[in-house]
C-alpha cells in the first residue's frame, strides 16, 4: 500500500545516484535503474535478502552490500537520493542513521523513507497472526521504544516512534520536510475487492516522509 505514494514522491530519477537502506530483494532497484537512475546501491543486513537482491540486480549496474544500516557511511556528495522502505523502524539510533544520510547526500539531495505507521507500531493486542485482523488497538502511543512483534513466523524488534518523533528527527538532521503521507489504499490496486479495500481504509499501515538536504 505504500508503493503508490512512494512512486509519486520519487518523481523523476533520471541520472540520480541512489542508495537504498534495508533494500530487501532490491526490486525497487531494478525499477529505478529501468527508469534511468545513474547508479543503485542496496544495503541489507540479511544474507538471504542480499542474495535475493543480487539475483534481482543481475545484468544491471546495480550493486548490493550486506551491512547493517547503522554501520553504513560514505563520503560527502556520494548520493543524490536515499530511500529506505519499511526498514527504519528496525533501527535503534535513528539520529545517527539520518546524520549519515545527510553526510553522504549531495546538496539538494533527497531522502525518502517509509516505516510501519506509528499507530501500528504503538501496541499489539492480538494473540494470533493466523487470521486477517479485524480490530486494532492504539495504546502506549507516547511511550517510544522497543516492541516485540510476531511477524511472519518470527519474533522481531520494532522501534516505536510517534509521527512527531520522525518529523523531529528529520528536522534535527537538517532535512527540510517535503512530504508526509499516510499511504491510503488506492482503489485501483484492489482488483475490485471492495471488502479488502474497506478493511484497508480502517487504519493507516504506513507512513512516508520525504526531505531534502538543505
Ligand atoms: C520489511 S523489509 C523491506 C525490504 C525492502 N525495502 C522492500 O520494501 O521490499 C525490511 C528489510 O530491512 C532489512 N533490515 C532491517 N533492519 C536492518 C538493519 N539494522 N540493517 C540492515 N538491514 C536491515 C531486513 O533484512 C529486510 O530486508
Automatic annotation (TrEMBL):
<feature type="domain" description="Methyltransferase">
    <location>
        <begin position="18"/>
        <end position="109"/>
    </location>
</feature>
<protein>
    <submittedName>
        <fullName>Class I SAM-dependent methyltransferase</fullName>
        <ecNumber>2.1.1.-</ecNumber>
    </submittedName>
</protein>
<dbReference type="GO" id="GO:0032259">
    <property type="term" value="P:methylation"/>
</dbReference>
<dbReference type="InterPro" id="IPR041698">
    <property type="entry name" value="Methyltransf_25"/>
</dbReference>
<dbReference type="GO" id="GO:0008168">
    <property type="term" value="F:methyltransferase activity"/>
</dbReference>
<keyword id="KW-0808">Transferase</keyword>
<keyword id="KW-0489">Methyltransferase</keyword>
<dbReference type="Pfam" id="PF13649">
    <property type="entry name" value="Methyltransf_25"/>
</dbReference>
<dbReference type="InterPro" id="IPR029063">
    <property type="entry name" value="SAM-dependent_MTases_sf"/>
</dbReference>
